[in-house]
Amino acid sequence: MVFQKTRGESSGILGMQSDLVILGSGIGGSITALIANQMGMDVILVEQSSHPRFAIGESSTPQADIALANIATKYNLPRLAPLARYGTWKQTYPELGCGPKRGFTYIHHPNIENELLVESSPDGIDCDSNWLRSDLDAFLVEEVKRTGISYFDNTSVTLHEDDGWKLEADNLSCTTKFLIDATGGSNPLGIEQDCSSFHTNSRAIYSHFNGVSSWGKLHGKQKHPYPCHDSALHHIFHGGWMYVLHFDSGVTSAGFVLDNASRPNDTWESLMAEFPDIQKQFEHATPIRPIVETTRLQRYAKQIVGENWAMLPHSAFFIDPLHSTGIAHTLYGIDLLMQNIGTASGLQNYKEIIQNQARLVDQLIHGSYCCFHDFDMFSQFVMLYFAGADYTERQRQAGYAPDFLHANDQAFCKTVGTFYTHVSNGTFNPNDVRAAIEPWNMVGFCDPSKNNMYTH
Ligand SMILES: Cc1cc2nc3c(=O)[nH]c(=O)nc-3n(C[C@H](O)[C@H](O)[C@H](O)COP(=O)(O)OP(=O)(O)OC[C@H]3O[C@@H](n4cnc5c(N)ncnc54)[C@H](O)[C@@H]3O)c2cc1C
User: Fold this and answer.
1) CA-to-CA distance for 403 and 390, rounded, in angstroms?
2) CATH number for domain 93-131+202-293, candidates 1.20.5.420, 3.50.50.60, 3.30.9.100, 3.30.457.10
3) Ligand 1 pocket test, candidate residues 189, 253, 327, 332, most atoms within 8 A of CB
4) pLDDT in tens, 346-377
5) Is the pTM for the entire model greater than 0.85?
6) d(CA 438, CA 456)
């Protein structure tokens, strides 16, 4: 085998050798490539498609942004750091699309006076963002190329496992010791899938739109701790929910996510007809790309690591966009994987932690679905998510080891599991949540005097 390497070019090349090949150049694959390069690995990034391209997964969270800032510092990638806050993003990379995300807004339908607002940032500058993924993912790939990492787009590889891996494509032939699947579930390794252990069973109908009115313009109130649309806006209703994410350009990402059991036949049009207040928000909206209707969203790979390969979290499984766990889990998972990549026991550790987290996320999401019909139930149950997320953020800021949704605390997982059982079997008492989350509740979640308006 001739060792020949051209760095940062996507022109075809034969006979390359590398320590690591990453398949998929979404945020996950590109950031993993940048980290691997900083760790001194010889890395190749391969993308089946090309950038810029549409991608879903746009609402960041405090956990996601803390994880991104941590990666920027830990692996000496300072050009990623500004992306972790809306203000620094706009200042440093004004050409990359985004919008401010000051918190989580929930509106219940049909009675829209039922509101829950959880502010997650001090102001409209030092806050999280809604990420226009086509811009961000293209930027990250440019960073990969700028750093000199070998990058191949429009490349579909065939894989042969042979004391490592051999990859073949029209424009590429290479061997590698280790492979990371960052394809977001396209499953190039052909791993058996089985999502029967997930309770969540949902599908999505989504697109990007022009002309969506802001909820604040229609229904803003003095008591709201922040402009209610500068957020991940959630419309909640029996059997489903809708996300509405605004970008500064005037484009809005929006999608319904529906429980397959209770809403098997709903369409964009039928839901608009059913919920007049949502219809009003969308009365001047036009989709700027075709509306996507998915099949069941949930997937779960039975194996997520092997002797010489591993999957990133979003390749290993997906549950549902509720609570915007995807980006945070991806970033947390990348850091965890790169700390464990050298040994079989390390990979086993990565696998167990990631799978445990997936179980917790499923309970938090499906438990919320079980409460969608009753806003009081929902607004108490969802505090399990906020308590876990907030506690984790504080732990990380205090210098403790990174964690995702506080899933490494058995007592917290047991508490979530108990409440999940209660909402599933109809024995849930919303008044019980406050005392149960007390060990992790640093900011007064479930305090009735706050009337569902939580300031930062
Ligand atoms: C409807 C919906 C809404 C969501 N909303 C949110 C949200 O608001 N917040 C949040 O945190 N998360 C959200 N998520 C989850 C989020 O999309 C993922 O967590 C995130 O995109 C993971 O990034 P990734 O880079 O791992 O994968 P992806 O973004 O899926 O990127 C995978 C890349 O791999 C490429 N690829 C595919 N197959 C191959 C192959 N065989 N070889 C080479 N390349 C390949 C693809 O072209 C793509 O570029 C949402 C998901 C869905 C389905």
Assistant:
1) 11
2) 3.30.9.100
3) 327
4) 999 999 999 999 999 999 999 999 999 999 99
5) yes
6) 18
